[in-house]
Amino acid sequence: MSTSDASSPASADRSLRGLLFLLATIAGVSVANIYYNQPLLDNFRQSFPGSASWVGTVPAVTQLGYAAGMLLLAPLGDRFDRRRLILLQIAGMCVALVVAAAAPTLAVLIVASLAIGVLATIAQQAVPFAAELAPPSERGHAVGMVMSGLLLGILLARTASGVIGEYFGWRAVFGASVVALLLLAVVIILRLPKSQPTSTLPYGKLLVSMWHLVVEHRALREASLTGAALFAAFSIFWSVLALLLAGAPFHLGPQAAGLFGIVGAAGAMAAPLAGKFADKRGPRAIITVSIVLVALSFVVFGASAKSIVGLVIGVIVLDIGVQAAQISNQSRIYALKPDARSRVNTVYMVAYFIGGALGSGVGAAVWPAFGWLGVSVAGIAFAAFAAWNHLRLPARAAH
């Protein structure tokens, strides 16, 4: 099955939309697995009281596994059929989830969580797959649609995990994910077409070639740094929000911080729209507007240390800005070297998550020393760096 098999432009368009919806579902259901454990830490502590001080390792190694998976597995999409890779990773993920659900000790759960993180990079096969299926004039919209699924998976994972964990226990969360993945695999087998490999490089040379892409494409370096800086600003806010809400005048628990994630769904809903604008107006213009929105959100945050309404408005502006920039950046980089989309995406996403880690670290350092105002200033500083990095590259060299 392929979009070219359709009998008319209208049916071809419906076919493409169906495939993009499926890829968005794949991205969301897979990436959710790296966030399921975050609301369950107290449950882990109760199940493994002898190792209570190590429960924080579970989400940490899951994130570490995801970063490793992006670097080591995501580039394989250029070398092999992405459909087969997705199905193989789903099979491996199901095994890891079963081990996690049955873990007799925290050590076993930690090892299983590392494997879950590595294999959750299924999402990083879905996004370049969308760029491959869509015509160039609709690539931004296609990437945006799949990214919206990924973002909804991130936002709703904690909510689903918390509900299932509260009523059925933490082991049921991993079991429910296995069921969801198996059902998804059936749909993939029936509906998702094969992709055409674009490289014959051996695995080692495939990894080394990513460095050559960084050296060769200035626009990739610029997009990666801009994305990293904006995700650093995003991470500063989310890493400190719970601490702000816990203090005066709010005195709110972690559930309140989780509800702000639902507010962030505005960013997920804006992703396809941002992709359409990127297709029509050009991605660089959208990125410029996005950077302004991120900076503006931290101005709002700085003035909202005692206002829930102000924080909600700031979250909406921040998420729309970050996600619009993300979609536009990815639309740009996928056009740089069509036969290396998975590797280009890997370079970008590794830089992106390094930026997120840096932002979380800066937030942890700034909060105790300078408070919420310091956090807001740091967010503006990262947005300013993104603006400098983005605007210093002439538009003619940005392709």
Automatic annotation (TrEMBL):
A Gene Ontology molecular function term of the record: transmembrane transporter activity
Signal peptide as annotated in the record: none
Domain Major facilitator superfamily (MFS) profile: 16-396
Classification via Pfam families: MFS_1
TM segment ranges: 18-36, 51-73, 85-103, 109-131, 143-164, 170-190, 228-250, 256-273, 285-302, 308-325, 346-366, 372-391
Keywords for the protein's UniProt record, in alphabetical order: Membrane, Transmembrane, Transmembrane helix
Name this protein carries in UniProt: MFS transporter
Annotated source species: Paraburkholderia ginsengisoli
